# Entry
Amino acid sequence: MQTWIFDRGLASGRTSGASQTGQLFSGPGSLVKEGIQNAVDKISNANLSEPGEIMITLHELTGAKKSAFLTDLCWQDLKKHVGSACLDGQAPWQTQMIKRYDNIENIDKPLRVLTFSDYGPEGLKGDDDFDDNSDFMRLCRSEHSTDHEKDNRSGSKGLGKTVFWKNSGINTVIFGSLTKRNPSDETLSIRLFGQSLLSSHTVDSRKHQSAGFFGNLGRNEDQDCAVSIWNDYGITGSLMLDRNPSTERSGTSVMIVDYQDEDHDDSCGEDVISSLRDDVEKWFWPALSSWHGVPPIVSVKLKFYLNHEEQQVQVATSDSYKEFRDAVTADPTAAVLSNLNDRASNDNIDVKVMKIDKDKSSVIDAKIGVRLCAVSSGTLKNELRNTVALLRNLTMVIQYEPLKFSLADGIEACGVVITGYAHGQEKSDAITHNFLRQCEPPAHDNWKYNDDIKHIHGAQSKRDSLIAAYQKVVKQLSIAEVNTKGRPVGALGAMLRFHGKGKVRPVRKVFLSETLLVSRNLKKGQIVVSFKLNFNNAGIVSWSRKLIFKIKGPTQNNRLKVDDYRDFSGKCRASNIDSDGLTLKAEGSTFVDGEVTLSVPDFVTKKDVGNLAVDIVIQDIKGA
# Structure
């Protein structure tokens, strides 16, 4: 008989609030990235003879259909724990959960259930519910657990799955899997299990921990517990997780109960499905694409049901990302993007990456690439204009990184940074893939996360240098180089095409080249400036210098406030922004390549923001 069983309270009396890990997954597309990424990883590792399938299904239930679903979910048991966990209503998550609780109790209000299903992988196999090395344990019971033996996996933290609970109004997720219960089985079995993540709470005078599990009543460590429900086609059918072992492929489904989308809370089901499809295509166009004549490794279909009646079917494709897709495969036609339809690339960017092992780490040489194309303005969606997609395999986009410059009028750029398995299949590519994966946060949306590499000597500097290397090449392929070597710094304003003539008062001889006005934001009163500085005779020892940016002229309070600084060279050991300006520190280098965001004083009108003559004042800091 199925039931909900929450772990007993600890003898120490220690309690816990709601899990905070879900806060790590508020980025755009985070739910789709995690749901599809897990399925794509399984499909890739399965070496299937035909493409794997992924189905995203949204069910909306009301009235009798909703009541039947809640009955088989054992809502009468679960709601005691949900109600107790958010009883005092002090925390924002408790206030929200109380609203969701009331909505579920009202049988006439719709309940949404969102399910991610894969078809092709072997599923959550194995009869042992407590095998620490099983995919079932890692996905359905454990926290912060991942399969470290799969080098080509996209995840690395075991945290990503918490995004499923984050998108549930009652923090509850149900799992279904068509798999082999025992290795020798010739037929597949259907497995069902669930988990609710609340906070420590009390029900019927008994204290409980935050995690509760849905399944059949079992025993483990001399205590009652929930164990997997096997081959109960009645309940799997009523919970919309049924699969026919005679006609359907093995695989796993992850169901989010009371699905909540904070960005589309009031949207109709059809619009929700369309939004999810857009996210699938945005982040997984590589997996949906055919490469070198090989079919896509996966197909993704999305369906919307209203009280079990199919309302809409959509299919995700890579067609809207043709320009990015073409950038991966097309041969270069130009050394730099100067004209419409130009293609420029460099696949042999030398970088150094860390091979991170359990006992030691080492530095190896590797290569990455940049491939760009010029398209007519308006071809791309606004959010994708002048961006490069960061790839470490040909399945998922990590991030769309904006280009910090503009091309000729009427032309915009897009492209890819290819690293890891996206670059090739050499051993160094595999090491690069794994290294960059360690440089990503749990949401896998950038390469600038330090928590996992900060204690590995040299890892951060190698990562920063890799980023600087591809950013430098992106710029080289986009803007024709102007040879200004040896040119003394005169006026930053003149070189940036500002009106007037600025002045620099260096304490040493300084050369500045390739200075560029990146952008201006009239609404915020900001300008973004990139620059390169070459300090003569400064690279032998460590040094520290302050850069002060001023509006030219005798005006009082003429200092430009530094809001942000980005180091592109990988040479700066540290940087600091304060009310006086920007402090840079480096060792063994004469060269600095960076970008500053500057705010102008309030007395400067918005229309004059882009018409300023600017001074850079460079000061030595004693004792550095």
About this structure: The two ends are 72 Å apart (CA to CA). The longest strand covers residues 361-376.
